[in-house]
């Protein structure tokens, strides 16, 4: 798949952008540790050149915190097209400013900052509206343009389909348009609370806001990984009367009930999720949000079709949401989907008057200042989702363990040699190789 997609991308050519993913390396030839992709389930910590200022708006960070995201597993399994051997992964990170380009006046060397996972130009019509993930000018993928009719912004560490920018699962990272894509962090907010402003907090908040959750709503959330857990929190903060989470990983179900008071459905026990929701909520949900994944089909039919590449994504969760939601209700999709699906229940969508919303990649710039204010005030404490802390050296084992849901893993803080000591109340350093209990074996 990768060879074919890369060949097609070469044929289609690149779209024009205002930034380049390639960077200059340091003149002294110095290297850093970085996590790179080499094939399905093959990620390695390598020595890579340390980036230097390449374009006048660049900022170079010493990474003090990074993490693994559920969407990174799509890369791990080779399910996102236009991956190339040696691509440095990672789109959720923060750090200390090491170098700044001559055009950067608002960011200073030595500042603590968090990066948005998307690279926005700051000038196009979307960026002017703070819709940073929709920037028109930073993703050169002609293939994405051909598939979707448009292009998203460039993203860090997420294949050449999103621009091919080296990511932040590394000791250093180049941030193009650093004057736009970095948010300074006050000293009162430790790294463990600031890091997730890069992605999961704006992403989960966007799903709740964009789907219009309001006081008294009954909300269903499919998938209780980090995005689902945070979306449940935000739905309750918006006044939802009930939140029902659907998953089959025992530790995640326990986590949701214990940490947030979420009602849960284990779909390994209730195979007919729609029937179970209708029993719990006569009349149906007000809002349903897909925080799950496309790469683990539940039914044999979709497993066969996906294996044979007759579809890239599966429609099972979306169909369950449409059938479980009340007439004229709302269904939102924040889960990462990439291509095409079969057996979509378009009839139920139309006849029930369901508002089906593709939330898109979350526009981090629209929300991150407000979310930082909630963190500063103590109204929001993101550390509730952090279950583990590991070293960058253990990234390959972390990918394998995260994929298998070992040891109740939810969100992991990954430290580098530049990281501050662990802050109070957060997990101590551990090694994935020592994690024990298999919560949920994957096929």
Explained architecture:
With 443 residues, the chain is of the alpha/beta class. It folds into 2 domains: 2-199 and 363-434, Medium-chain alcohol dehydrogenases, catalytic domain (Quinone Oxidoreductase, Chain A, domain 1, Alpha-Beta Complex), CATH 3.90.180.10; 201-358, NAD(P)-binding Rossmann-like Domain (Rossmann fold, 3-Layer(aba) Sandwich). Helices cover 27% and strands 21% of the residues. The chain has a 6-stranded parallel sheet, with helices on both faces. The protein has a 5-stranded antiparallel sheet with strand order 9-3-5-6-10. A 3-stranded antiparallel sheet has the order 2-1-4, with helices on one face. Helix 9 packs parallel to helix 11. The relative contact order is 0.14. Residues 226-292 form the Alcohol dehydrogenase-like C-terminal domain. Its cofactor is Zn(2+). Residues 56-186 form the Alcohol dehydrogenase-like N-terminal domain.
């Amino acid at each position: 798949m990768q060879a074919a997609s890369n060949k097609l991308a070469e044929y289609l050519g690149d779209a024009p952008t205002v930034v380049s993913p390639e960077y200059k390396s340091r003149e002294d030839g110095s290297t850093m540790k970085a996590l790179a992709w080499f094939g399905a389930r093959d990620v390695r910590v390598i020595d890579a050149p340390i980036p230097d200022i390449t374009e006048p708006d660049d900022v170079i960070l010493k990474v003090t915190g990074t993490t693994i995201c559920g969407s990174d597993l799509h890369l791990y399994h080779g399910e996102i097209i236009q991956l190339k051997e040696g691509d440095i992964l990672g789109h959720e990170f923060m750090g200390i400013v090491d170098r700044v380009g001559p055009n950067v006046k608002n960011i200073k060397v030595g500042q603590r900052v968090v990066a948005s996972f998307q690279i926005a130009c700051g000038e196009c019509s979307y960026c002017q509206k703070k819709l940073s993930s929709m920037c028109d000018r930073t993703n050169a993928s002609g293939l994405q343009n051909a598939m979707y009719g448009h292009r998203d912004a460039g993203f860090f560490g997420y294949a050449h389909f999103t621009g091919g920018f080296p990511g932040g699962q590394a000791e250093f990272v180049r941030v193009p348009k650093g004057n736009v894509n970095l948010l300074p962090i006050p000293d009162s907010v430790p790294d463990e609370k600031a890091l997730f402003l890069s992605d999961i907090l704006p992403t989960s908040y966007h799903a709740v806001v964009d789907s219009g959750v309001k006081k008294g709503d009954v909300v269903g959330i499919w998938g209780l990984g980090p995005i689902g857990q945070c979306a449940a929190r935000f739905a309750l903060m918006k006044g939802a009367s009930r939140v029902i989470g659907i998953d089959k990983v025992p530790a995640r179900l326990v986590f949701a009930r214990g940490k947030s008071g979420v009602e849960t459905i284990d779909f390994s026990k209730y195979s007919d999720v729609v029937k179970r929701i209708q029993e719990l909520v006569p009349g149906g949900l007000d809002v349903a949000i897909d925080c799950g994944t496309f790469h683990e089909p539940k039914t044999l039919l979709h497993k066969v079709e996906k294996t044979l590449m007759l579809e890239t994504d599966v429609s099972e969760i979306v169909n369950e949401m449409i059938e479980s939601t009340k007439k004229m209700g709302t269904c939102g999709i924040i889960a990462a989907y990439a291509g095409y699906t079969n057996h979509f229940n378009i009839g139920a969508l139309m006849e029930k008057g369901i508002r089906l919303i593709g939330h898109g990649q979350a526009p981090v710039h629209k929300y991150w200042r407000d979310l930082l204010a909630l963190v500063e005030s103590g109204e929001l404490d993101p550390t509730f989702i952090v279950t583990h802390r590991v070293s960058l050296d253990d990234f390959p084992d972390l990918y394998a363990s995260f994929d298998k849901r070992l040891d109740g893993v939810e969100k992991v803080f990954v430290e580098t040699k530049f990281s501050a000591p662990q802050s109070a109340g957060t997990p101590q350093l551990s090694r994935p190789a020592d994690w024990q209990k298999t919560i949920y074996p994957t096929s």
